[in-house]
Amino acid sequence: MIYVSPLSAVTEAIRTVRPSHLVSLLDPESMIDTPEGIARERHLRLSVNDIAEPNDLLVSPSEAHVSNLISFVREWDQQSPMLVHCWAGISRSTAAAFIALCTLNENHPEDMLARLVRARGSHAHPNRLMVRIADDLLGRQGRMRAAVEALGPGRATWEGELFAIPVHPDRQAP
């Protein structure tokens, strides 16, 4: 499973979900150290601001950031859950979860994966810039972008809740 949470729920999620891998997507000033219960080499720290268009005053998600995320996901053995978080658990983390699903399910339709993320987290509003970069890196020919755009905005909230997404939706029992 891939779990998505806001920063405020990370400690409790590590205690209850017991992930082997952690992805932190926070602005550089808010980046956390590796929490207890996670091996340092299994903690990907991506210092990026939550912006959908490049901005000279903030750290935009870049090709290097998204490439590091894709590599980290590909190296994950999937034996234990992965926890992905950002500040609110709404945009950067849901984009990272969607990117992970697309990375691990190469032949699965992008629109179905995007709808799965939204179905599991009604507040999900994946960061468009991260998705656009991943779409190019994964050779999805605009399908990831279109899938996220088709979702429209998520449920309005200041902070999301912890939610889980099956890594391989086609293998789930009905």
Summarize the structure.
The protein is of the alpha/beta class. The protein has helices at residues 10-17, 63-75, 92-104, 110-120, 128-137, 143-151; strands at 2-6, 21-26, 43-47, 82-86, 163-165. The longest helix has 13 residues, at 63-75.
Question: Can you tell me about this structure?
Answer:
By secondary structure, this protein is α/β, with parallel strands linked by helices. It has six helices and five strands; from the N terminus they run βαββαβααααβ. Helix 2 crosses helix 5 (128-137), helix 4 (110-120) packs parallel to helix 6 and helix 5 packs antiparallel against helix 6. The relative contact order is 0.21. The model has no long low-confidence stretch (mean pLDDT 95).
Q: Topology, pairings included?
A:
Blueprint: E1 2-6, H1 10-17, E2 21-26, E3 43-47, H2 63-75, E4 82-86, H3 92-104, H4 110-120, H5 128-137, H6 143-151, E5 163-165
Parallel strand pairs: 1-4, 2-3, 2-4
Antiparallel strand pairs: 1-5
Helix pairs in contact: 2-3, 2-5, 3-4, 3-5, 4-6, 5-6
Query: How much strand content do the residues show?
Result: 5-15%
Overall average pLDDT = 95
The chain-level structural class is: alpha/beta
Fraction of residues in helix: 25-40%
Shape: globular
Largest sheet: 5 strands, mixed
Search tags:
alpha/beta, 5 strands, 174 residues, globular, 6 helices, five-stranded mixed β-sheet
